[in-house]
Write a structure and sequence with these properties.
alpha/beta; Uracil-DNA Glycosylase, subunit E; 4-stranded parallel β-sheet; two-stranded antiparallel sheet; 18% strand; globular
Length: 163
C-alpha cells in the first residue's frame, strides 16, 4: 500500500510530528487522523489553546499557524487494516528532503511504533533529536485524554521557545 497523503508543512515549520501510516479511516477521508476515536486533533488543539478544528482546512491552518509539520514515517508498506504492529516491508518517506525545505529542528514520534520505524529506516540520515510522545491512537486506551494532553504539552513548550 502506498501512502496517499502529502505532508503538511511550509518553510516556516519548526517541528515535525511523525506517525506511522494512515489508518483505514484516514485513507478513506484522505486526511490525517480522520478516525474520530483518534485523539490527535483533540490533544493538539488543547495544548495549542485553539478551538477544535472541524474541517481539514482548519486543521491544516492550525498546524501551520503554530509552525508544525505533519507526516508519516512510511511511504509504502504491507499493512493489515490500521494495525501499526502489522506493518512490514517498509519503504520510508523522504523525511530528510522535507526537512531541507523547512526550518524544522525537532522531531516527535506519535507513538512507539513511529519511533521504532523512524530509527530503523530514517535516523541514520537525519541528525535531529527525536522525542517519543504517547500514541493518540484509540489502541492506546490506557492513556486518558487528560494524560495525553499533559504529556503532549512538550510540543507546545518547544513551539513557544522557537517563536
Amino acid at each position: 500500500m502506498i501512502h496517499p497523503l502529502d505532508p503538511i508543512f511550509d518553510e516556516h515549520s519548526v517541528l515535525l510530528i511523525l506517525g506511522t501510516f494512515p489508518s483505514v479511516k484516514s485513507r478513506e477521508a484522505n486526511f490525517y487522523y480522520a478516525n474520530p476515536q483518534n485523539r490527535f486533533w483533540k490533544v493538539l488543539s488543547a495544548i495549542l489553546r485553539e478551538e477544535f478544528p472541524k474541517t481539514d482546512d482548519e486543521k491544516r491552518r492550525m498546524l501551520l499557524k503554530h509552525r508544525i509539520a505533519l507526516w508519516d514515517v512510511v511511504h509504502s508498506c504491507e499493512i493489515i487494516g490500521s494495525s501499526d504492529s502489522s506493518i512490514q516491508n517498509v519503504i520510508p518517506n523522504d523525511i530528510r528532503g522535507l526537512i531541507a525545505k523547512t526550518s524544522i529542528t525537532k522531531l516527535y514520534a506519535n507513538g512507539a511504533r513511529a519511533m521504532e520505524l523512524y530509527r530503523k529506516h530514517c535516523q541514520s540520515e537525519i541528525d535531529l533529536p527525536m522525542t517519543l510522545l504517547p500514541s493518540t491512537s484509540p489502541a492506546n486506551a490506557s492513556m486518558t485524554l487528560p494524560r495525553l494532553i499533559e504529556r503532549w504539552k512538550e510540543v507546545l513548550k518547544i513551539e513557544k521557545k522557537e517563536e
